Amino acid sequence: MIRVRVIRERAGRAFSPTRIPGARWVINQYVGCQHACRYCYAKFVRRRYYYGRWGSWVVVRENMPELVRSRYVAGKVYMSSISDPYQPIEKRLELTKRILESMNKRIRLSILTKSDLVLRDVELFKRFENIEVGLTVNSFGESIKRDLEPRSPSIGRRVEALKRLYESGVKNYAFISPIIPKLTDIEEIINDTRDFVTYYFFEFLNFRAAGAEFRRFLKDKYWEAYEVMSDTERFERYVKDVIKAIRRSRIKIGGICLHHPKLIVVK
Ligand code: SF4
Q1: Cα(158)–Cα(156) distance, integer angstroms
Q2: How many angstroms is it from 179 CA to the middle of ligand 1?
Q3: Counting atoms of ligand 1 from 1, which one is nearest the CA of 83?
Q4: 94 C-alpha to center of ligand 1: Å?
Q5: How many CB atoms sit inside 10 A of residue 191's CB?
Q6: pLDDT tens-digit series, residues 200-223
Q7: Is 155 a residue whose pLDDT tops 90?
């Protein structure tokens, strides 16, 4: 187990307005994430919280269970946007679990994680009137997964979690992200999961938000992927092909997110 620095903080409010597609509010009980994905778009929080290497610290907003108690908000609440609600520290602190226990069960909740720890709370999910639980999955092979998402649970465990949620009667969704040319095989993911996934949401890699460090890494280690990502014409062709493959597969599509990156080239 890799040590993590824990910084405790008291939040001023639980639900913050958001522009995340389909959601009205976001709840972030943690800031920072032990999963330490190289491409993580949440790294921008280091402008305010700088405690060192991404993945080595987590801010814990310990008063969140009190803040959500008896508070109702209309519209979908998304959990979470700048952390993973089921990152390893959650096993010990049970902060997400206590929030779910305190939360008004009429709130429309959408949870997204990369961890099968989420299965611990299945019985709690069932108490909500309107809830969906998503797992981020991809088709990265072992060594690519180690490079890009070094400390998250294996993709196999996440696929299994989707299956167990489905079997428990909890509405689930697969978040296919980040879609990276040459590294992501959309058809393989769909074939492996279509029997037990309610719907799919797709997101192409946001080359800008992934940061300069990640762009350099991709250029050095996954040159072919970088070449497509940094060439507008080739990237647009790639996007069209992927969208065609998605449409051919006759699955339920929640959305396809493309960040329209401007051409980004590493010098
Ligand atoms: S799991 Fe999500 S929030 Fe955590 S490091 Fe990875 S991309 Fe970022």
Answers
A1: 5
A2: 15
A3: 3
A4: 18
A5: 12
A6: 999 999 999 999 999 999 999 999
A7: yes
User: Whose CA is closest to atom 3 on ligand 1?
Assistant: 83
Is 157 among the domain residues? yes
In the predicted model, what is the mean pLDDT of residues 6-34?
A: 96
State in Å: Cα 32 to ligand 1 middle.
8
Q: Which helix (H) or strand (E) holds 34?
A: none
Please indicate, yes or no, if residue 267 is contained in any of the structural domains. Answer: no
Query: Which residue's CA is the nearest one to ligand 1's atom 4?
Result: 33
54 occurs within a structural domain: yes
For residues 74-89, average pLDDT:
97
Residue 263 has pLDDT above 60, yes or no: no
- The answer to whether the CB of 246 falls within 8 A of the CB of 186 is yes
Tell me whether residue 264 is in a domain.
Answer: no
Domain that holds residue 230: 5-257
- Using CA atoms, how far apart are residues 149 and 40, in angstroms rounded to an integer? 9
CA dist 88 and 33 (Å) reads 9
> DSSP readout, 18-45?
--STT-SEE--SEES-TT--TT-GGGGG
3-class SS of residue 234: helix
Picking from 123, 88, 87, 117, the residue whose alpha carbon sits closest to that of residue 105 is: 123
What is the Å distance from ligand 1's center to 55 Cα?
A: 9
For residues 126-135, average pLDDT: 98
Domain holding 240: CATH number?
3.80.30
Atom of ligand 1 nearest to the CA of 82: 3
Determine which residue's CA is closest to atom 8 belonging to ligand 1: 40
**Mean per-residue pLDDT for 231-256?**
95
How many distinct structural domains can be found in the chain? 1
How far apart (Å, rounded) are the C-alpha atoms in residues 267 and 242? 28
